[in-house]
Write a structure and sequence with these properties.
Elements (H helix, E strand, L loop, with lengths): L16 H4 L19 H28 L15 H10 L1 H13 L9 H20 L29
Helix pairs in contact: 2-5, 3-4
Length: 164
């Protein structure tokens, strides 16, 4: 068999002074990462949810407000001939007036034919308003029913004197 040559020794590289500094240039100001408050994330999530809740309430109340304009429009007139639509257009702008007119027109329909969005908007608005009232410490709604007791149904006992 043949003879195996030993591995040649590696030459040591000359190290620069910069290579010996573990964190870069010491002339730069240190980067201080502030420690996060453990509850900060929860607060940020809560603030985000409150913002979403307020936005949803505003949208729902807007739909309800548009539906309540049903009394201002004539359901039998076409939109272009209705003077109240023109007033809405001046007041809200073309796009928002079109939306408000559609919602107000649908409010003229019976409940069975009305869009589900009207009921949904009302339900959402009422739910958020109740939750806000409860959150602010209003008296909780009591879950009690009315009970009527007939006076004739209460048994009458005779009175007796007791002596010792």
């Amino acid at each position: 068999m043949g003879c195996v040559a030993p591995n040649p020794p590696k030459k040591a590289k000359a190290k620069l002074a910069v290579d010996r500094v573990p964190f870069g240039n010491f002339d730069d100001p240190p980067v201080i990462i502030p420690k996060k408050d453990p509850l900060q994330r929860k607060r940020e999530q809560r603030d985000k949810l409150i913002g979403l809740r307020d936005e949803l309430l505003a949208e729902s109340m807007g739909v309800i407000r548009d539906a309540m304009r049903f009394r201002d429009i004539d359901e039998n007139l076409p939109k272009e001939a209705d003077p109240n639509y023109l007033r809405l257009e001046d007041e809200l702008g073309e796009l928002d007036a079109e939306r408000a007119y559609r919602v107000a027109k649908s409010a003229w329909r019976p409940n069975a034919e009305a869009p589900a969005a009207l009921k949904l908007a009302a339900t959402i608005a009422v739910g958020i308003l109740k939750a806000n009232a409860q959150e602010k410490g209003a008296a909780p709604a009591l879950n009690i029913g009315k009970v009527i007791i007939n006076a004739a149904a209460i048994p009458q006992f005779e009175e007796r004197e007791v002596t010792e």
